[in-house]
Amino acid sequence: MVEGRSHDEHVDLWTLGILCYEFLVGSPPFEEEKQDLTYRRICKVDIRFPAHLSVGAKDLIAKLLRPKAEDRIPLKKLLEHPWIVMHLTEEVRSRLPSFQKVKSEKA
């Protein structure tokens, strides 16, 4: 979006990666004091992970924040990611909805 290109449902995966980072770190992943520097980091996908973040969390976020939309981890695979599996109880997993491909409108 920053680059002005069209996007599809894969942008939701990017957004999920941003939210995961913010929830675990407490700040946005690309934030800089100046907006143009923030945009540059977004365009380069310049992610800086703090040391306290687990390897699994870093891996998941990195797979969600891939520059090419088609390279991002699909939603179905997301639920199978080891970091997610490790944090979900069987009760929660049994309540998860099944995901079906929905025809999306072009933005």
From TrEMBL:
Concerning InterPro entries, the annotation shows: Aur-like (IPR030616), Kinase-like_dom_sf (IPR011009), Prot_kinase_dom (IPR000719)
Pfam families, sorted: Pkinase
- Pinpoint the Protein kinase domain residues: 1-84
For this UniProt record, the keywords arranged alphabetically read as follows: ATP-binding, Kinase, Nucleotide-binding, Serine/threonine-protein kinase, Transferase
Q: Could you cite one Gene Ontology molecular function of this protein? A: ATP binding
Which portions of this protein are annotated as coiled-coil regions?
A: none
Is Nucleotide-binding found in the keyword set? yes
* Catalytic activity of the protein: L-seryl-[protein] + ATP = O-phospho-L-seryl-[protein] + ADP + H(+); L-threonyl-[protein] + ATP = O-phospho-L-threonyl-[protein] + ADP + H(+)
Superkingdom of origin: Eukaryota
The protein here is known as Serine/threonine-protein kinase
From which organism does this entry originate? Daphnia magna
Provide the taxonomic classification.
Eukaryota, Metazoa, Ecdysozoa, Arthropoda, Crustacea
